[in-house]
Design brief:
185 residues; alpha/beta; Rossmann fold; six-stranded mixed beta sheet; 5 helices; 6 strands
Length: 185
């Protein structure tokens, strides 16, 4: 009987330890005095990303993945393509054809016409993939919220993994907005 109990304890430790070992590690930060409750429309900016493996999505696919992940959000999310097409039709500037820095500048100057805030994703590919989501206020470009999530070491760079991490960002942002709304009441 004592052996069976010991085996059950060891089995429980292995199962619980495995769940912790394969979980994505994340951290969110609300910038001091930032009001997230004013975010009703959120635009997605072009990510800072370099594809390092053949299985990983390219930059345009990653932009679409982040937009697809927004389906879990309560906010209205505006795609990068919507902003780019709007700027092209109104100001005759093709953001997608511009070099990265110039395109980002045009995006920041014009996103205020489409959203209250915008999110820029930065992807770090070291021994494991880490996503950094930064939410800025449209117009002033003040940083409001940061969220970092790291894939576990055994997870490959794939569309599914990137979608899961992006969904976690939107869920956490919604949680932070809900907490601020409760505090205001």
């Amino acid at each position: 009987m004592k052996k069976i109990l010991q085996l059950l304890v060891i089995a429980c430790m292995v199962v619980l330890g495995t769940q912790v070992a394969f979980a994505n590690v994340d951290k969110s930060t609300v910038i001091k005095d930032a009001d997230l409750t004013g975010i009703h429309r959120l635009a997605i900016g072009s990510p800072l990303y370099l594809q390092v493996s053949e299985k990983a999505p390219d930059k345009s696919q990653l932009t679409q993945i982040v937009y697809d992940a927004s389906r879990v959000s309560n906010a209205v999310v505006v795609s990068y393509d919507t902003v780019a097409d709007g700027v092209k039709s109104v100001k005759s500037i093709d953001m997608k054809a511009l070099p990265r820095r110039e395109g980002a500048k045009v995006f920041k100057e014009n996103v205020v016409d489409y959203a209250d805030a915008y999110v820029i994703l930065t992807v770090a590919n070291n021994s494991f993939t880490e996503f950094f989501f930064d939410v800025y206020k449209a117009g002033s470009n003040d940083l409001l919220y940061s969220y970092a999530i790291a894939a576990n070491r055994h997870e490959e760079d794939s569309a599914d993994a990137f979608l899961t991490m992006s969904e976690q960002f939107f869920k956490n942002l919604d949680r932070e907005i809900a907490q601020q709304e409760k505090k205001k009441k």
